[in-house]
Amino acid sequence: MSFSRQILIFICIWGLLIYFFLIKLNPTSRSKETDEIERLNSALLYLEKSKAIDNELRRLLDEYVNDVASPEQKSELLKRISSKFQDVTSSSTGLSSNGVPSYEYEQLRRRVTTNVGELWNYMGTELSKIEKSMRSEFEMQQSIKQMKNFMELAREHIRSLTTDLNTMKGADGYEAYRHKESKALSDLVQKRLHYLQNPSDCSTARKLVCKINKGCGFGCQLHHIVYCFIMAYATERTLILKSKGWRYHKGGWEEIYLPVSETCLDSDKGSQGTWPQQDVQVMSVPIIDSLNPRPSYLPLAIPADLAPRLTKLHGDPIAWWIGQLLKYILKPQPETLEMLENGKNKLGFKKPIVGVHVRRTDKVGTEASFHSLEEYMKGVDDYYDQLEMVEHVDKRRVYIASDDPKVIDEARRNYPQYEVIGDPEIAKVAAVSTRYTDSSLNGIMLDIDLLSKCDYLVCTFSSQVCRVAYEIMQTLYPDASSKFKSLDDIYYYGGQNAHNVISVMDHQPKSAEQIQIKTGDLIGIAGNHWNGFSKGKNARTNQNGLFPSFKVNNKVEVADFPTYSHVE
Fold first, then answer.
1. What's the mean per-residue pLDDT of the chain?
2. What is the edge-to-edge ordering of all strands in the sheet holding 396-402?
3. What is the DSSP annotation of 301-365?
4. What's the pLDDT score for residue 63?
5. What does pTM read for this prediction?
6. What is the pLDDT confidence band of residue 19, given thresholds at 50, 70 and 90?
7. Please, are residues 495 and 288 in contact by the beta-carbon 8 Å criterion?
8. Phi/psi at 208 (5° precision)
9. How confident is the model at residue 568 (pLDDT cuts 50, 70, 90)?
């Protein structure tokens, strides 16, 4: 293919993308989706204009009623007109005048933000293909330089759009609501869990026994405990952990973390049984993969009574729900807390900072593919490039957690522009041969703690350590669902029920790899390829294949959990 033809094809692709993006924001379109996007883009403008219009209304009314009304009548009339005007403005923009956004506004804001990212995934992948093709067929360095300049300008366009969206969120007047609602929901769940775990009479309380010695790593065992806690919450049973002889610490869980109950730790008395025997006082459960029958309240389901508030507040409700369970479980003993604080201070951990988790030893080639450090650092670069559009960064910092100490050395050698924070000694004891030691336990706890406290995560979601850090991160912000970049999997929970998405746009396949979807189709998602396309199975057609990621919305699964209505 000639060079000029390649450039022509490239320009056509770019033009189509820009045309599509503009059509999405075109106020003359009358489609439902376009009306919503128009409403989002106009929302802040309406709010800015509302004060001026309100003032003008007040001036005109003042002139009108000045000679015909008493001061008291005039004041009351102005209040009524102003209130009515604000109600009309709120209705027309989808916003609220009482500091609480509408559900539609929050969903649309997050969808536009996500789709800007998906647009860049697609553009970046296609531009890279063209650049590689040019390099392989031509030795035209000037043309390659021009293409790189073009790619950098495209990146700036996307970063600018993302910055505008972030600014819009910060200026929409709802940050106070988001922080207040986040705290209120978290407090409610923590109170429910405390009530469940501290029955008034332990001898008669219904209990669920969980043995934590599952044959896997630390992150996997944490998720096993969370699964047990979900089962306990759903069946209104006090969770009893059996941890003596724990492979990570023979003394058991309670020597590292506070007990999950202050008043009820005994499960030896009362009738005994296993799932699904609900008529026994003490029930044991197998690992999630062996659970049969499988109840609807397993992940990725969230409690139905929390769903209306949670889906408005958060972009990844299941991660928030898991994070709340981890928040209750992971309360360190004083010695553990001291170890974490000393480790943080010793490493010089400070913000801004991006957390990078590189899993190498036992995962690569089995559960996950190899990813070079360069791939991780590309995500770190992108984060800081975005951040520097709105604030000065004194030093680019990166916290690297790995089970391979050479990764930290490689980062310090190849990325001198970064302050690389990490401990090769922790990486050494994270290797398989030394994993189940106190030193390794301290190291993995410190890694998870610091990764969760980073401003952004770059990792592979095939790693349970990374997913645990992401889940805990959700407890530190009103919504941290976009504070990550995964190089492989989308977020998932091991042993979960089906993960489905719902199509919001039609799609006709453009290649043999793609599938047809129609608006409203239910699609079982297998993963996001991070190139603008995801893979899944259409339940309507039974077709497996690729589809554009921006044409679907995540389906939030809800299940009927106990409501604990007496706990406020």
1. 84
2. 418-421, 396-402, 354-358, 456-459, 484-486
3. EEETTTHHHHHHH-S-HHHHHHHHHHHHH--B-HHHHHHHHHHHHHHT--SS-EEEEE--TTTBT
4. 52
5. 0.79
6. very low
7. yes
8. -125, 120
9. confident
- The answer to whether 45 touches 147, Cβ cutoff 8 Å, is no
Highest mean predicted confidence (pLDDT) among 110-119, 126-135, 494-503: 494-503
What length does the chain have?
A: 568
List CB contacts of 487: < 8 A, sequence separation 6 or more: 371, 375, 376, 379, 458, 459, 460, 530
Query: Strands 396-402, 354-358: parallel, antiparallel or unpaired by DSSP?
Result: parallel
How many angstroms separate the Cα of 60 from the Cα of each of 46, 64, 66, 223, 548?
Answer: 20, 6, 10, 63, 52
The percentage of residues in the chain with a pLDDT greater than 70, rounded to a whole number, is 77
Which DSSP letter does residue 116 get?
H
For the record, the structure tokens of 29 come out as 């379109």
- Sign (positive/negative) of CA torsion 327, 556, 233, 564? positive
Answer whether 455's CB lies under 8 Å from 351's CB: yes
Both tokens assigned to 328: 């209750």
Structural domains in the chain?
Answer: 3-175 (no CATH), 178-298 (no CATH), 332-486 (3.40.50.11350), 500-559 (2.30.30.40)
Q: Are β-strands 522-528 and 500-503 bridged in parallel, bridged antiparallel, or unpaired?
A: antiparallel
Q: Give the pLDDT of residue 154.
A: 74
Q: Three-state DSSP class for 2? A: coil
Give every CB contact of residue 522 below 8 A, 6+ residues apart in sequence.
Answer: 500, 501, 502, 538, 539, 540, 555
CA-to-CA separations, 128 to 90, 188, 351, 375, 425, in angstroms, rounded: 44, 48, 32, 14, 37
Residue 295 three-state SS: coil
What are the pLDDT digits (tens) for 89-125?
444 445 555 778 888 888 878 887 887 788 778 777 7
The residues near 109 (Cβ < 8 Å, ≥ 6 apart) are 40, 165, 168, 169, 172
